[in-house]
Specification:
The structure holds 2 protein chains of 2 kinds. Chain A is of the alpha/beta class. In chain A, 38% of the residues lie in helices and 24% in strands. The longest helix of chain A has 14 residues. Chain B is an all-alpha fold. Chain B is globular and about 55 Å long. Chain B: It is found in: Cell membrane.
């Protein structure tokens, strides 16, 4: 059974068709990359899959469960988590607290009014573990607003990990991360491979071709090709629509 | 890896700093009546009780305004429910404070649940307006309640009894009972803010989309906090009725709701102890400026503007600048 099945998904903003009849079948454990030029509709697609944005038509299934009508929190509880292209954290909370809240959401009730949550060892320990997996445990006690850009990207990942997803939607986790930092980040993602299914949106082609099992190319809201990284790299249609531009620009 | 048990984080340090600030306030409150007696000015004990009651209400409002970013402009309605719970039950011969408080809480919980569920469908300035509208609805309901004096209100024949005891008969007894309730409710609010629930509420204030993305539906947490806040405010109303020995719709006019917001902002939002100090400052200024000039509201307005300009974080901000309280960074 596929992990995530998308059938004929559509979305328009006014006259602009941003998601145009998108179908996808993401296999268990794979990293399925979605690449495409700026404004292709990648973030919109992720928002539809995560339930943050409603769809005009089509359906989304997690495993064999139709989740098309579920809210974002309900999808998260079923194991579908996302990260944000533009970092979205709780700025006045510490790094650890940001992650601990995600642990708390999946573990037990949040209608507890008396115990001091900061002293809950189990929450803190699970949060530290997720932080370590994202390479950020050394910054646990720092307020999120004081983190650097690269650290913010790691915090995004750590929070998503802490929800213990079965399918993780990553929207450009490497956005704005360069050089050596990007390499260790890719290594971090590589270590997570196989633990859950990942849909990876990424502009960094080196990262995509290192990590992805399969790649789908999204252009003007349509998927124009899906295949192994090698097949995508040599697909003439893809080269014309997308990769060609990148190489010329480089 | 750092130690999972020893994460005394920055906001937590600020929290314990505020605990100390509250402790100082409570000690000062406890010392006030003997001081007033020594100065031969027992009238201050009654004013003091009024201040304590408003401190409870301001703290309750801070729970949703400061920690939940819900600016309720109709919170005086709950003060009103508290005062009328006393008047109505007393007219039925029920004078027990505990029963009056329970009744006030029950009616407030229902009102907050219904109006909160509707108001929370809106955000920002619309939330302010709709809570104001519900507050006015409650206000006009009691104006039309002719059995209890309508617009004019009704005087109370006696103060409430506490489990059969005349604890509130003396002004001192009323003062210290109100203080004890303030302290107990502060501890309750402080616990809530530091709990799992409080962390979720604060998280929703900081970034609701992020909270949804990790599995929380903001609505139910916000509504719960809204109800808790309304219920605590109602307790303030019960004490206020005993202090004034008089109940009228004036307790629930929109001016009162505005004053509660002023107290919270003046004291420092999201600090619990701050709004208690804010209630003291606002009511003392009202007393003194009112005695100086009939245009005291103008002076009060100027004072507020200066405060917002020079210390946007209120009295708490001033103390932090002076290095007395600890900053949250
Ligand atoms: N809420 C919205 N209302 C109107 N138009 C929108 C909205 N969100 C996105 N768009 C438009 O939809 C198109 C796709 O946007 P989207 O953010 O999904 O692209 P993307 O592939 O993620 O781009 P990038 O690579 O720059 O992140 C763009 O033309 C964008 O301007
Ligand atoms: Mg995008």
């Amino acid at each position: 059974m596929t992990s995530l099945t998308v059938r004929n998904l559509t979305k328009s903003f006014g006259a602009l068709k941003v998601t145009d009849d998108v179908s996808l079948a993401v296999e268990p454990g794979e990293i399925h990359a979605i690449i495409g030029p700026n404004g292709a509709g990648k973030t919109t697609l992720i928002s539809q899959l995560s339930g943050q944005l409603g769809s005009d038509g089509g359906s989304v299934s997690l495993g064999d469960r139709d989740i098309t009508r579920l809210s974002m929190p309900d999808r998260v509880k079923l194991g579908l988590a996302r990260s944000f292209q533009i970092t979205s954290v709780l700025p006045g909370f510490t790094t650890l607290e940001n992650v601990a809240l995600a642990v708390q959401a999946r573990e037990g009730s949040s209608f507890r009014f008396f115990g001091t949550v900061a002293r809950e060892e189990a929450l803190n320990r699970a949060a530290l573990k997720a932080l370590a997996e994202a390479g950020l445990d050394h910054r646990a006690d720092v307020l999120a607003k004081s983190l650097s850009h690269g650290e913010h990207r790691r915090l995004e990942l750590a929070i998503a990990l802490a929800t213990e997803p079965s399918v993780l939607l990553l929207d450009e986790p490497l956005a704005g991360v360069g050089g050596e930092d990007a390499e260790t980040f890719v290594a971090n993602l590589q270590r997570l491979k196989g633990r859950f299914t990942m849909v990876l949106i990424e502009h960094d082609m080196d990262a995509v071709f290192q990590l992805a099992d399969r790649v789908s190319v999204l252009v003007y809201g349509r998927i124009i090709a899906t295949g192994t990284p090698q097949a995508i790299r040599s697909d003439p249609q893809v080269r014309a629509a997308y990769l060609g531009e990148e190489e010329e620009a480089a | 890896m750092s130690d999972a048990t020893a994460t005394l984080t920055a906001p937590r340090r600020a929290l314990t700093g505020r605990l100390k600030a509250a402790l100082v306030l409570f000690v000062l409150f406890a010392l006030m009546p003997p001081l007033a007696a020594a100065l031969n000015d027992p009238f201050y004990v009654l004013i003091g009780t009024r201040i304590l009651a408003f401190a409870i209400a301001a703290m309750a409002l801070d729970l949703i305004l400061g920690y939940g970013a819900m600016v309720s402009f109709g919170h005086a309605a709950y003060l009103g429910f508290g005062t009328y719970a006393v008047a109505i039950l007393a007219s039925w011969g029920v004078n027990d404070l505990v029963l009056q408080i329970l009744a006030a809480i029950a009616i407030s919980a229902i009102f907050a649940l219904v109006t909160g569920a509707i108001s929370l469908r809106t955000k920002g300035v619309y939330f302010i307006m709709i809570t104001l509208a519900f507050g006015q609805m409650a206000f006009f309901f009691f104006i039309s309640l002719s059995a209890y004096g309508g617009d004019d209100g009704v005087a109370l024949m006696q103060r409430s009894t506490v489990l059969g005891m005349d604890l509130l008969k003396s002004d001192f007894g009323l003062y210290y009972t109100t203080l004890a309730i303030l302290v107990a409710l502060f501890v309750l609010c402080h616990r809530i803010v530091g709990s799992r629930f409080g962390r979720v509420l604060t998280g929703i204030r900081e970034n609701p989309t992020r909270m949804e993305a990790i599995g929380y539906s903001p609505f139910r947490y916000q509504l719960t906090a809204f109800v808790i806040s309304g219920c605590i405010t109602a307790v303030a109303g019960v004490m206020l009725a005993n202090q004034a020995q008089f109940v009228s719709p004036a307790f629930m006019s929109w001016h009162r709701s505005g004053e509660l917001i002023v107290m919270v902002v003046l004291g420092g939002v999201g600090t619990l102890a701050g709004p208690i100090a804010g209630a003291v400052a606002a009511l003392l200024l009202e007393e003194w400026l009112g005695a100086l000039s009939e245009h005291w509201k103008l002076f009060f307005g100027v004072f507020l503007v200066l405060m917002v300009l020079f210390s946007p974080r209120g009295i708490t901000g001033l103390l932090e600048k002076a290095g007395i309280a600890r900053r949250q960074e």
